[in-house]
Structures are given as C-alpha cells and as structure tokens.
Design goal:
The protein is an alpha/beta fold and 640 residues long. The protein has 25 helices and 16 strands. The radius of gyration is 29 Å and the shape is globular. The two termini are 58 Å apart.
C-alpha cells in the first residue's frame, strides 16, 4: 500500500489528460491506458528477473552470455524484446523520424503511436494467450499526448506497489470514470489481503484450479505466487481455468497472468456466463476453486440455470411469476461445491447475508452442512473493499477433511482484527494473515506449521533488532557527540535484551522516547542546516522501532491465545462447532453466532461518576462561552 494514493492521483492525471486531448469515451481510453500500465509493470518485472538470471551467468569470449526468452520462461516471467521495453519507448526522440525505426514486419515507423503499437505486437508474440488482447490503437493519439502518458507511468512507485496492481488500478479507473460499471451486478475488485487469505487457507500445491468469475485474475496471480514460494513452478504444478463474461475484465486477466509468467485458459463473453455455462466442462473435476462472485445478483433465468446443471442441492428461491432466481448467492455457492472433485477445496468471498439467509437458501445450507464438507467460515469487517464499505464472509469447503473434523466447522470472527490503511480502507498485514492461517493449522492438527510461525516471529524480531545499529547510524551521525553517546548507550541496552516479548517491547518503547528526546536535545548543539535532516532520520529510525513493536504485538496476540500450539476456542474470535450445534442454530453459518463476544476489560472508570464530571465540565464551558460572547458584543457596541 506504500504510495498507492500518490500513484492513483498520477494515474488519474494521465487518464484525464488523455480524455481532454483525445475526446474519447471512457470505454475507448480505459484499455489503452491500462495496457501502457501493463507494459510498465511488465518492464519492472523483466528487469528484476533479468538481474536474477545474470547472477552467475556464464561468459563466452570474455563477455557475459546474453539473456534469452527461454531463460525467462524457466522463471515463469514474460520476456520483452528491446523495442517493447518501457525505457526504450520513454527515451525515443521527440521527432520519431530521426530514429529511423522499423516495425516487426519491416515497415517504417513514423510516429510514437506506431512505436507503441509495434511494442504491443512484439509482446503478444511472446505469449500465445495474449494474442489479440493488447490494444494497438495508439495512432489515434497525438505523439505529445502519448509521450506525456509514458512519462507519468515512468515512476518508481509502480515498482514498489507490486501484487495485483493491474486489477487494483483497473478498479480505480472504474470507480473514477465509470461508477455505474464498477457496481453493476455487484462486481468489484477483490483486495489483495482477502485473496491471500483464501489462498493461505486452501494451500494449493498442484492440480486444476478454476475461478468462474475471474475478473482481473488476482486469484490466479496469488496462487502462482504461493506455489512458486514453496519452491515449485506454478505453470507445471497448476492448470488455471477462468470464466469472465465482461470482455474488458478478461483482457485484464490475461494481461495480469502474462506479466506474472502464468499460463491459463480464460473464456469470456456470453459463453462465459457461469449461470448458464460450464465453459470448460469442469464439474466434479477441480482440485481448487477460488472466486469473488458478484453479490446478490437477481433476474437470473431459472429454467436456463436449471438446465445448465451444477446444482447438487437444487435451485434457490424462484419468482414463480417471472421464473427468475431472485438472489443468485446460493447459485454461486452450489457451483463452487459442484466443481470440486472428491478431494477438492474451495474458498470464496460471499455477502455476509448469505450465512443465515432464510427459505430455500436455508434448505440448501442445511444440505451443504450435512455433507460434512464445510471446513471454515470467516467473518470480515467493513472497509476491506476498495470502493465499498460492506462487510463480507469467506467460505471454505474441503471434500477431504481429516476424520476428526468431518462433522465440525471452524468459525472465525475476524471483524475486529485488521490494520487500518486510511480512513476508508482496512487490510490484513502479512503477520495478521499468518496468525489467522495459524488458527486453521491448529484446527487441522498441523501443529508443526504453528511452531514454524513462532520460529519465524523470533527470527524476524532478532534480525530486526540486530540491524538496529546500522539503521540508527544515519541519526547518530547527525547529532552532537554527547547526545550520540547517550543514544548508543540506550541502543546497547536494547541489543542485550532477552527473548521475553514484554521486556523487549518495553525497551524498544523506551528507545523511541529516548530517540525523540535526543533529537530535541541535539537541536541546541548542531548546525541549523542539519536540523531538518536530523529530525527526518530520527523519525525514520523510530518508525523502524515501531515496526518491531508491531511484530512483537502480533506474536503476543497469537501466543496469548494458543500457547505453544494447541487449538482452543477463544471467546469472540474462534470456535469449532459440531453439525449438531449448527443444527440447533437453524443451520446458520454466521461466525458471530458461535464465537460469542469477548469480555471487555474493566478500565476502572465509574460510568456515572465520569458522566457527572463531563456534564459539570460542559456546564462550565457553556458559562465561559456565554461570558465571552457578552464581552465580544460589548466590544462591538463600543466600536460603533
């Protein structure tokens, strides 16, 4: 999330510039700008992979052997010919004719638009699944307009953001220019932390994966990252299939997968409407199903839906007069289950209301629970979605649960566990994602994974503390000698702290306090020209210390609940409920109905006494305000 707001503002500037200069509609200019963003991000990844390839690269005739497309394919990355690399396009001369460029088919290139078109064609030649996907309409824009767009996208912030950036920026464009499209049929971009949570719980290793509402492809990208991080190759281990009825979304999905070096088959258009088509004929064949389907879709044709199958529990509620499914949530839920093979796992995002909706939904939910394949239910709080504030739930199915859990469901209420990004956006940090995943590990009896997490925590804290001296050097070099002596003395106190989290945390808090005190003291002894740099260095160092405290706090959050690695129900957070308990609650799958509410610590404040104090204070302030107003009016009269 670093600098994402700044990046968005710059992208808005670029799109608005394009709108003003070209007079095109949003549907016409959206894709060309996104394709330029794709090219910029592809170049960023290209340079990163190229550096990896060149490490230890053999030499011939005293020169390092050049990289080849096959080198990038081996690392699941997209190779970019020189003429398709972003810096090449950025550095072309203002007068393109001076460069004497030739296109891939040998024709003269006479404008920047033609050069960009040629770049897009060259990229398509490197990836069969991109054939015909990238726009090649840049000659409709003036060269100076395109040059400005290239300049705007040529910033390092894009390199820093990472993740499913195309999907994130695509949603930004929709929310800014085409709000009606962004909310049409409940469609909206899936935040990265929700996707990572789905992947973390499913833990894909190998097999067939389907996303029947794949949007911009974030599920595929995150699954690929997960498999690659485990030391395997995602393209050899996984087979990716997607359906997406919106053509723009499908194009973005293919672009997103290509830039991450992933191969997959994506079908779009009417034949990809999951309500009426199993486009890949995958019912009962999937090892993994992941999706964020549109919520609460209505007016789905009941007869066509029934004929299309994949409804093991029957149709949800149908409007008899119109012969339409009035809410498609349980169509999606049925599909996700129907696509699984006998050992498959599914994870998906769903509207919170679906966990305890009534009538036919309730009947389908009962049948689903009685299969024993509902594995985990997780509640997510507000503000996780980029353009909407609604809460949601994460559902997980497992057709091959361990025998001990066959008649049980793990409920997690994570609505109060998150990191605030800004006023309108929340997310899970990497440690919070792993903590929630750890609860699932313990429920599944995978104690060794829990203990590995504790070991990772300890290693991360130890490495961060060990690096503090180097990180504090910039600050120590800018303060005066006497203050620096005190600063380094406090630093040594932290470095010698033991492994007790409480003690280490207190010492780091003291270091933050002492660093701020040192900065204030040093202002009186160092040259004024150095004060600002010294303050910034101190703030940066305190930020590093605060990050360590955050890691310590997350470790403590986990250990306080589960010790060295034994699952237990935690009031307000998690509970393992039996099918009988679920039946007693009318087959509700709402986590809050099972985990209860955590007890609030008594802060020792008497409510009535405190309210009396507040009332007295308010009365005093009102009296003072009235007196002040009288004085102001009197002064005004004296001026007349």
């Amino acid at each position: 999330m670093i600098n994402i707001r700044k990046l968005e503002a710059e992208l808005w500037e670029s799109a608005d510039l394009l709108r003003q200069g070209s007079k095109l509609t949003s549907s016409q200019y959206c894709m060309p700008v996104l394709a330029l963003l794709f090219l910029r991000y592809a170049y960023s990844r290209y340079k990163m992979v190229e550096a990896e390839i060149l490490q230890g690269r053999p030499m011939r005739g005293g020169r390092v052997m050049p990289v080849e497309p096959s080198d990038f394919a081996a690392k699941s990355a997209l190779y970019l010919p020189r003429e398709a690399q972003f810096d090449y396009l950025v550095n072309l001369p203002d007068n393109i004719l001076d460069a004497h460029l030739k296109g891939k088919d040998g024709h003269d290139i006479n404008s920047l638009g033609e050069a960009v078109n040629n770049a897009m064609q060259l990229v398509e030649d490197q990836s069969e699944q991109l054939t015909g996907v990238l726009p090649k309409t840049y000659t409709m824009f003036a060269d100076d307009l395109l040059r400005e767009l290239l300049r705007i996208f040529n910033n390092k912030t894009i390199d820093e953001v990472g993740g499913d950036i195309i999907g994130r920026i695509y949603e930004y464009f929709l929310s800014k220019f085409a709000k009606a499209v962004a909310s049409d049929d409940g469609v909206f971009f899936t935040p990265k932390s929700l996707v990572k949570m789905l992947v973390n719980v499913l833990e894909p290793k190998q097999g067939v994966m389907l996303d029947p509402a794949c949007g911009s492809g974030g599920m595929f990208v995150q699954t690929g990252d997960f498999v690659n991080a485990a030391g395997m190759n995602a393209n050899s281990q996984m087979t990716f299939y997607g359906q997406e009825k919106v053509e723009y979304n499908a194009q973005l999905c293919l672009m997103n997968m290509a830039v991450h070096g992933l191969n997959g088959r994506i079908i779009s258009g009417d034949e990809a409407n999951t309500f009426y088509h199993d486009a890949h004929n995958l019912a009962g064949k999937c090892d993994y199903v992941m999706a964020n389907p549109p919520f609460n879709v209505d007016k789905v044709k009941a007869e066509s839906t029934f004929a299309a199958g994949r409804l093991p529990f029957g149709l949800p509620g149908v409007n008899a007069k119109k012969k339409e499914v009035s809410n498609a949530n349980y169509l999606w839920i049925s599909y996700f289950y129907a696509y699984l093979n006998d050992h498959g796992r599914a994870g998906f995002v769903m509207a919170s209301s679906a966990t305890d909706s009534a009538n036919k939904d309730r009947d389908i939910r009962e049948q689903l629970v009685r299969t024993g394949d509902v594995d985990v239910m997780m509640s997510v709080g507000n503000n996780f979605f980029y353009t909407l504030s609604l809460p949601c739930s994460l559902w997980f199915f497992d057709r091959a649960k361990r025998p001990e859990n066959r008649d049980k469901v793990l409920f997690i209420d994570a609505r109060n566990y998150y990191t605030v990004v800004d006023r309108t956006l929340n997310e899970w940090s990497e440690w919070q994602l792993r903590n929630l995943q750890a609860i699932v590990h313990l429920y599944r009896g995978e104690t060794e994974k829990y203990r590995q997490l504790l070991s990772d925590y300890d290693q991360a804290i130890d490495e961060a503390v060990a690096a503090l001296r180097e990180q504090g050097q910039a600050f120590g070099d800018l303060i005066d000698e006497d203050t620096a002596g005190h600063f380094w003395g406090i630093m040594g106190w932290i470095e010698n702290a033991g492994h007790d989290d409480t003690d280490k945390r207190k010492r780091i808090e003291d270091q933050i306090f002492q660093t701020k005190a040192c900065a204030k003291s040093a202002e009186h002894f160092i040259p004024k020209r150095n004060v600002k740099a010294m303050r910034l260095a101190g703030e940066a160092f305190c930020g590093v210390l605060q990050d360590i405290i955050t890691v310590i706090d997350e470790r403590s959050w986990l250990v306080e609940k589960f010790g060295e690695g034994e699952y237990q129900d935690v009031l307000g957070l998690c509970k393992v409920a039996t099918i009988q308990e679920i039946e007693e609650k009318n087959y509700s799958l709402t986590p809050g109905a099972y985990v209860g509410v955590a007890e609030q610590e008594d802060d020792g404040v008497d409510f009535h006494e405190r309210m009396t104090e507040i009332h007295d204070e308010l009365a005093r302030l009102n009296t003072e305000a009235n007196a002040l107003m009288t004085d102001i009016l009197k002064a005004w009269e004296d001026l007349k």
